Amino acid sequence: MTIIYIFWLCIIFACLYFLFPWIYGHILRKIQKKKALSTNTIFLTFDDGPGNRLTPQILAILKENGIKATFFLLGRNISGREHLVQSSIKDGHMIASHSYSHLHAWKVLPWKLIHDIKKGWSAVSAAVISVTVNAKHVYRPPCGKLNLFSLLYLWICNVPIIFWTVDCLDTWPESKRNINYAAQKIEAEGGGIVLFHDFDRATDSLDSYVLASLNAVIQTGKELGYNFSTIDKLYKKRN
């Protein structure tokens, strides 16, 4: 009987630790998608930056088109690139956090993940010259994964958690990539939260893909008369 009890305790723990955060994230993603589609809004988001090569080119495209976006910064990539963070802020873009080390919530100990979240916040705060070094920034979980403890911690801190609804496929295998994929999804669905990555890769071969995909989304959105906005519109209450 003891073995049976242990077995069921393990099942219950696994459901709480992995399944509950996954279900919550799935529901939250649907809610955020519904908000985007209800106003035909495109939320351009960039993860894992800033990058020395790609981020300045993205900022130039956004400025040329008069569009504001959201940058989910990876803490370990900020050092030495604070000027890019400042340029993003100066141009009116929103700065948020994507953790410090991009740890997968299902593959590390919970206290190590929480420490990494806090470390990411500190890195972002230092870059934006925040008065409060430990300010808690809007958070996008790496790989879209949360565990029970990280979810509870973010709830306690009252931090908005942001997912995505459209992936430009820039981190997928080459055979899966399609420059027009994100634009086609936006057109078919009526808006969405688009995921791009602006970190420095080993080579610059993917830079042109990201820029072309971004331009395709912008062109499609403008042709359809859609709105472009930063992700704070997803969780701030309307007046």
General description of the model:
- By secondary structure, the chain is an alpha/beta fold.
- It has one domain (40-234): TIM Barrel, CATH 3.20.20.370.
- 47% of the residues lie in helices and 10% in strands.
- The protein is built from seven helices and six strands.
- The protein has helices at 2-38, 54-65, 82-90, 110-127, 148-156, 181-189, 207-224; strands spanning 41-47, 70-73, 94-97, 166-167, 192-197, 227-228.
- Strands 1, 2, 3, 4, 5 and 6 form a six-stranded parallel sheet that branches.
- Strand 1 (41-47), helix 2 (54-65) and strand 2 (70-73) form a beta-alpha-beta unit.
- Helix 2 (54-65) packs parallel to helix 7 (207-224) and helix 4 packs across helix 5.
- The longest helix has 37 residues, at 2-38.
- The N and C termini lie far apart (58 Å).
- CATH topology name, in short, is TIM Barrel
The poorly predicted ranges are none
Number of domains: 1
- What letter string, H or E per element, gives the SSE order? HEHEHEHHEHEHE
Which CATH architecture? Alpha-Beta Barrel
Task: Classify the secondary structure makeup into a structural class.
Answer: alpha/beta
Q: What is the helix tally?
A: 7
> How much β-strand is present in the residues?
5-15%
User: Average pLDDT across residues?
Assistant: 92
**Helical amount:** 40-55%
3D shape: globular
CATH H-level superfamily:
Glycoside hydrolase/deacetylase
CATH C-level class:
Alpha Beta
User: Terminal Cα separation, in Å?
Assistant: 58 Å
Which radius of gyration do the C-alpha atoms yield? 19 Å
Number of strands: 6
What can be said about the biggest beta sheet? 6 strands, parallel
